[in-house]
Amino acid sequence: MWAYTVGFTVLPHVGGFLGWFLNRKEIPAWYEKLKKPSWCPSRRVFPVAWTMLYTGMGYASYLVWNDLGGCSNKAIVPMGLYGAQLLLNWAWPPLFFGAHNLNMAVIDVLCLDGLALGTFCSWYRINRLAALLLLPYLGWLAMATCLTIRIWKDNPQLKPGKSD
């Protein structure tokens, strides 16, 4: 059973690592030049935060999957919500850093918020510890959403249809 625990716990890190790896050059070249609010976390905080958040959500997903008896009909909605929000989570860095598409990044993060909240609500009825493990992630997403929207608003020259 430990292999399932490790697999579920590591899975979120895969997309997170790929997102970082594929877009890492855009951080000093593009992100650092954006106008950002004073409350924007330091670049050094992001890898530490995401390591903890991905580990917590991954282990929580294992708890829910295990409580539902693995791949069963009961797991379709709670694990489907989780999978969908994880895909949107992984899609954000290529949209924001890779494509420099702030409009799509805002849409992505708002949809991600809804799916993450839906995941929390569906998991709460199944395994409260799993749901509670998502609370730091939901808090970070709230900050990330506000930051994405603020960057979108404060950098109008990067919106499609605007001239430089």
Could you characterize what this model shows?
The structure is a single chain. The chain is an all-alpha fold and about 160 residues long. Helix content is about 75%, strand content about 0%. The chain contains seven helices and no strands. The longest helix has 23 residues, at about 45-65. It is elongated and about 50 Å long. It starts with a helix and ends in a 10-residue tail after the last helix. The relative contact order is 0.15.
List the main descriptive attributes of the protein structure presented here.
7 helices; 164 residues; mainly alpha; single chain; elongated
Report the sheet with the most strands, covering strand number, pairing sense and barrel closure: none
Q: What's the assembly state of these chains?
A: single chain
Structural class: mainly alpha
Query: What's the tally of helices?
Result: 7
* Shape descriptor: elongated
Q: How much of the polypeptide forms β-strand, as a percent range?
A: under 5%
Helix content: over 70%
Cα-atom radius of gyration: 17 Å
Low-confidence stretches: none
Q: How do the SSEs run, as a string of H and E?
A: HHHHHHH
Measure the end-to-end span. 56 Å
Number of strands: 0
Compute the average pLDDT: 91
In short:
The protein has seven helices and no strands. By secondary structure, it is mainly α. The longest helix is centred in the middle third of the chain and has 23 residues, at about 45-65.
